[in-house]
Specification:
The protein is mainly α. It is 40% helix and 9% strand. The strands form two sheets. It has a two-stranded antiparallel sheet. A two-stranded antiparallel ribbon has the order 2-3. The longest helix is centred in the first third of the chain and has 17 residues.
Length: 173
């Protein structure tokens, strides 16, 4: 019903009639099992088919569509796996070409234990407690103070933390 509510919110704005229709139908599925109207295939406005892929890609990376946030490549794989079912195959192919789909990227991160932390290291992933509470956000540079707080938290929680940091750049040959 969210799409129908979004369409209703734009009803009074005549210049947004087409956008409102895309919003209404972006939860339709290519196989006809979506909502609010159960449209399938080409009956779904093309803008809504594009919006469905973009919206779900964003939701997959934010963790609102799956149990946890997915990486860029994992989100692309989920979208690709639903081609012809949830998503228009033509839209998925264009999406993949625009995203420059990669096989498996070379990892730019490494996992380490708290005792290995050094000032200047940068978190490659969010740091959460075992219960899911966010301690530090991805891309945070660590200094002596933060390292001390992380160490104290690990000690008081009596659970070892695994941190993911960006690998240092390889020296040029």
């Amino acid at each position: 019903m969210l799409g129908a509510h979004g369409q209703a919110a734009l009803m009074a704005l005549e210049q947004l009639t087409k956008a409102a229709l895309m919003i209404r139908h972006h939860h339709e599925r290519y196989d006809g099992k979506g909502y609010p109207d159960g449209l399938a295939l080409e009956r779904i406005p093309v803008g809504a088919r594009i919006l469905a892929v973009a919206n779900d890609y964003d939701s997959l990376q934010n963790g609102t569509l799956e149990e946890r946030p997915l990486t860029r490549n994992d989100a692309i794989k989920v979208i690709t796996s639903q081609s012809g079912k949830r998503y228009d195959p033509n839209v998925v192919e264009i999406f993949k070409s625009l995203m420059g789909e990669e096989a498996e990227p070379v990892s730019t991160e490494t996992s380490i234990r708290c005792a290995e932390l050094k000032p200047g290291m940068v978190l490659a992933r969010d740091l959460h407690t075992s219960s899911g509470m966010l301690l530090l956000a991805k891309d945070r540079a660590l200094d002596e103070r933060l390292i001390g707080q992380i160490y104290q938290f690990e000690h008081s929680a009596r659970q070892p933390l695994t941190l993911f940091i960006y690998k240092p750049a390889e020296p040029a040959a």
